[in-house]
Amino acid sequence: MSGALNAPRARDAHVSCILIKLRILMTDRILVKHFSNIRDRIKKYGEHVGIAEHGDVKGLAREGIIKEFLKQNLPSIVEFKTGQIIDHNDELSGQLDIIFQSPFAPHINLFQDIQLTMADATLGVMEVKSNLFLFGPEILPNH
């Protein structure tokens, strides 16, 4: 009878052991190391931008940091711009920090990287916030 009572504990210990081994394996992965280094670099850039006092200046600089990351890490088949999304009824979204789309999709260029993107061509949207590490850094090792 005592063996049956200890079975859940033994299973939990076994699962814990597997999770620890998986964590060790993941910390040695090149991709994990790559993104861990990028996370640290972005965090340093974000701290450096913090010396500015004006919110718009900080926001624009942080958007630039994220755009540089995307430029270095996304395939050329995805482009990203700032602007608004327009739907088939000519209704416009609010201002969006980063809009992802195909470089082959139609759009209305307003100036440089600012454009109106067709809703049907929008792959995704990203908003850049002042606190770059509010969610998720615990998924990478050494945080």
Description of the molecule:
The protein has 143 residues and is of the alpha+beta class. It has two domains: 1-73, no CATH class; 75-128, no CATH class. It has three helices and five strands; from the N terminus they run αααβββββ. The protein has a five-stranded mixed beta sheet with strand order 3-4-1-2-5. α2 (30-49) runs antiparallel to α3 (55-73). The mean pLDDT is 80.
Please state the structural category. Answer: alpha+beta
Low-confidence stretches: none
Oligomer: single chain
Shape: extended
Considering DSSP H and I runs of 4 or more, what fraction of the residues is helical? 40-55%
Determine the strand fraction and express it as a percent band: 15-25%
Main sheet strand line-up: 3-4-1-2-5
The radius of gyration is 22 Å
Number of DSSP E strands: 5
Would you list the SSEs in sequence order as H and E?
A: HHHEEEEE
Instruction: Give a short account of the largest sheet.
Output: 5 strands, mixed
**How many H/I helices?**
3
Integer tally of domains? 2
Query: Roughly what is the average pLDDT, rounded to an integer?
Result: 80
Topology:
Layout: H1 2-27, H2 30-49, H3 55-73, E1 79-86, E2 96-101, E3 107-111, E4 114-118, E5 122-126
Parallel strand pairs: 1-4
Antiparallel strand pairs: 1-2, 2-5, 3-4
Helix pairs in contact: 2-3
What is this structure, in a nutshell?
This protein is an alpha+beta fold and about 140 residues long. Helix content is about 45%, strand content about 20%. The chain has helices at about 1-25, 30-50, 55-75, and strands at about 80-85, 95-100, 105-110, 115-120, 120-125.
